[in-house]
Design goal:
Helix content is 63%, strand content 3%. The protein is mostly helical.
Length: 369
């Protein structure tokens, strides 16, 4: 263990630091509290490892490192090595949290602050999940910071520049939760339509797609229960626009994210405008389930409706839309529709049986002809 003090000299070359951080975390898991005397040095080395990738540009500071995930210049070999080193440093934090538990508390606030200077990435999400599991008191601040990072990825907005007919929209990302407002976007700004996102200078399409998918997936899987109001704002003002995104991977992830969020929101918000929002989102998803051009997306939506949403799905306006899926050209989609409609028939037997009989009669006549 006395080797920890020479750790920085032990791996001075960048290519070996990622392995060193991973080894350091595994050693901490093996020896447990024996690592405590060296914890300040370890935390300092992790901070330096994370600092290598955060940069010092104005935009990166403005949005917590989000801009550096969409760099305007191609990543060099050194950039990739720095990113890999930062990923391993993040995973090292998660392993330290698992090994030390509450004994990491004196350094926890500084570590969280440093972690959120790194662009959104799978290693960051994994490390934050481990950190909040081992140190539950960090969950509120992690929820707030992570939700803002996700929103800064998803809510690419425009700010009008100039006046009159010559005014133009300048794409940018801003801290959208800064103002005390129930609406997601400040006045004078709008969500950049999916087709216009491609015009963002220097944005790499493949890289941006991966970042958006990660943000959507994290929004649907991470525990944001105490941030229900902000999740509602993000769902209403931003997430629904991705159901019409031109890239099918993003459309599919947006739809499944909605179906993961809605059951929790439906349990939290049982009356008022919140229930209306759940109903309206489900109406949109029902349209996706029957009208999207990609069969796998239609199947994913029909298969992901949670039973906790049945009281909304059984309403006539949504149920009539779902019955259209019985005529889908793909057998797997029709099969998923039959399963879902059979479950909903208990909630609204009159409409279900009437539509089912009409559908069966139509198909019988088609076979007879």
């Amino acid at each position: 263990m006395n080797r920890f003090h020479s750790f920085g000299c032990f791996c001075p070359s960048l290519p070996s630091r990622d392995v060193a951080f991973l080894s350091l975390g595994e050693i901490a898991l093996a020896v447990g509290d024996a690592v405590l005397p060296h914890l300040p040095v370890i935390v300092d080395m992790i901070a330096k490892g994370l600092g290598k990738v955060t940069g010092s540009g104005r935009d990166e500071k403005k949005s917590g490192g989000v801009f550096s995930a969409l760099s305007s210049s191609p990543a060099t070999a050194d950039d990739k090595l720095r990113r890999k080193t930062a990923d391993m440093a993040l995973l090292c934090i998660g392993m330290l949290a698992r090994a030390l538990g509450d004994k990491l508390v004196p350094h926890a606030a500084a570590l969280v602050e440093q972690m959120f200077q790194v662009p959104l990435c799978p290693a960051l999400i994994e490390s934050l999940e481990e950190l909040t599991t081992s140190l539950p008191h960090l969950l509120p601040v992690v929820q707030e910071r992570l939700l803002e990072a996700i929103a800064n990825v998803l809510a690419l907005i425009t700010t009008p520049t100039g006046t009159g007919s010559g005014a133009q929209d300048t794409p940018e990302r801003v801290p959208i939760f800064g103002a005390p407002s129930s609406h997601l976007f400040p006045a004078g700004r709008r969500l950049l339509p999916p087709a216009e996102r491609k015009k963002l200078k220097g944005a790499d399409a493949k890289q941006e797609t991966a970042l958006i998918v990660l943000a959507l997936r994290t929004l649907g899987s991470f525990n944001f229960d105490s941030e229900a109001d902000r999740v509602v704002s993000l769902l209403r003002d931003c997430l629904l626009s991705y159901l019409d995104y031109e890239h099918p991977t993003i459309r599919k992830e947006a739809a499944t994210t909605c179906t993961r969020l809605l059951p929790r929101l439906a349990e939290t918000i049982r009356y008022g405008a919140g229930t209306h929002l759940v109903f309206e989102v489900l109406k949109r998803l029902a349209v996706v389930a029957v009208a999207d051009t990609v069969p796998s997306i239609r199947l994913a939506v029909l298969s992901s409706f949670d039973p906790r949403l049945d009281r909304y799905l059984a309403q006539a306006e949504i149920l009539n839309t779902l019955f259209v899926a019985l005529n889908d050209e793909v057998f797997a989609v029709r099969e998923a529709a039959v399963t879902l409609l059979g479950r909903l028939s208990v909630r609204n037997p009159a409409l279900s049986y009437t539509n089912s009989l009409a559908t069966l009669w139509t198909k019988k006549r088609a076979v007879a002809c």
